[in-house]
Design a protein that fits this description.
45% helix; alpha/beta; 7-stranded mixed beta sheet; Rossmann fold; 264 residues; single chain; 7 strands; globular
Amino acid sequence: MQNIENDLLWKNISSLPYFRGFLRAIEGRYYDDIELSTPLLDLGIGDGHFSATTLPGIVDVGIDPAFKSLREAKTFSAARILSCAKGDKLPFKENYFSTVISNSVLEHIEDLEPVLGEVHRILKTGGYFVICVPNAHFTQNLSIALVLNKLRMFKAAIWYQGFFNKISRHYHPDSVEKWNSRLEKAGFSIIRSWNYFPARSLSVLEWGHVFGIPSWVNKKLFGKWILIPKRWNIWLIYNWLHQYYEEDQTDPDGAYSFFIMTKG
């Protein structure tokens, strides 16, 4: 466990609920192979943890409609400028940003078309739009739903799938084909895309919503997900997750999709 503090998995699970930190670490690793030009906008920066951890000092502007989240993002120094705005009315001129990223955000927006239109407007010709979103495999691969289906409890499985998407605030756990169509209709050309987070990893996230309740209590009472981010307190969960983290997470049936696009 030498140099563990520089490990992206460690950085995430030492400050987030373990299941969320696990997913963010996997997503963050993909950014190592992407050339991100500035000025760069983080669309839906939230509390700023992802940008501050994965892209420290790179993000020029972060926007989010939740002012409370932006106050937290400020403590992380997640972006040079933070703006409280909605995605369908971005306060920037046309063709301004060279790169726009949106990490696990678009699935939470009910009316997506105006947001995608705004991103297209503010992105430079030839600029990059980088996103990751859950796809239909997220719903299909939930472990409890799979068990219920095997027991031929089909209505219960459908209810559970809907319930889990609801607590995850997912409006768009759509098929890859639907995401492709939606993005291309908005004027983006998909350079590269892949699915990741196989069923084995999804089960970590799914059950983490239960076993991560103590982290939720910590956040509510003390303002921190992890009260004691020390090796002795987290090494067991780190070692358990590391075996998954070191695996190739790309999978045709993966629950999430990563897209790298350009504005033609």
